[in-house]
Design goal:
With about 220 residues, the chain is of the alpha/beta class. The chain has a single domain, classed as 3-Layer(aba) Sandwich (Rossmann fold), CATH 3.40.50.150. Strands 3-2-1-4-5-7-6 form a seven-stranded mixed beta sheet. The chain is globular, with a radius of gyration of 17 Å. It binds S-adenosylmethionine. It comes from Kitasatospora kifunensis (Streptomyces kifunensis).
Length: about 220
């Protein structure tokens, strides 16, 4: 399985889970790799994606998981769904928010239960010299990671795989610069944190600190 920048950050994302987490929503789940990881922790996961092929692959790849630990995969566009208010303990968007208008985060924010956490593993275009400097630093690290994973794959017995051979989740180049993402988040996600990650990604975390009700 080749080195994948989104999968690489799964553990970092899982570290953002609130202490008590029973329900989660994965937005743009693709073939469901992250949703399955979440579900294996005992979290009830709803995973949504508008790609029928990706959802079909996600279901196939989840066969054989212990019953009660299978994410609920749903074919759908999150911008058109009416999400339950104040419901989810954890909402994740891995490399998917740039497929939709950024203000979709408003409905995700409102769907968070008190104490709930929204995590966005985002992509951004290189627009400034700082962006380019980060990319330059990422290139050798990326090469080393690719080679390491390739060598490990050769020495490991064959596994069920990632599902990328079953179907590829749709991809799209990001267009909104990081500065603009920060500015929009400032308006919509008070108290958020955002940091750059090495492999052409950023991590945005928003915690719903409201007790009982959400009033923005
Ligand atoms: C680059 S893929 C990432 C897939 C997966 N999260 C991962 O980490 O491998 C982006 C995904 O976002 C999904 N997507 C695009 N528009 C969406 C929307 N409006 N609602 C939910 N998901 C969407 C795409 O179908 C695609 O599967």
């Amino acid at each position: 399985m080749p080195f994948n920048h989104n999968d690489h950050y799964h553990r970092l994302l899982l570290r953002q889970l609130p202490r008590s987490c029973s329900t989660a929503l994965d937005v743009g789940c693709g073939t469901g790799r992250f949703a399955r990881r979440l579900a294996r922790l005992g979290v009830e996961v709803r995973a949504v994606d508008p790609s029928e092929e990706a959802i079909a692959a996600a279901c196939t790849l989840s066969e054989g998981m212990p019953s009660g630990m299978v994410p609920r995969f749903e074919h759908g566009d999150v911008t058109e769904l009416e999400l339950p208010y104040g419901h989810y303990d954890f909402i994740s968007c891995l490399a998917s928010i740039h497929h939709m208008p950024f203000d979709t985060v408003t409905s995700l924010r409102d769907a968070l239960a008190p104490g709930g956490v929204l995590v966005i593993l985002g992509c951004y275009p290189e627009k400034t010299w700082v962006d380019w400097a980060w990319s330059l630093a990422a290139v050798p690290a990326n090469a080393v990671a690719r080679v390491t994973i390739a060598v490990m794959d050769r020495t490991r017995p064959a596994s069920a795989g990632s599902g990328r051979d079953l179907a590829k989740a749709p991809v799209r180049p990001p267009t909104v610069p990081l500065l603009q993402i920060r500015q929009q988040a400032d308006l919509l996600l008070p108290g958020f944190t955002l940091r750059r990650l090495l492999f052409w990604r950023y991590l945005l975390v928003f915690r719903n600190t409201a007790v009982g009700s959400t009033d923005y």
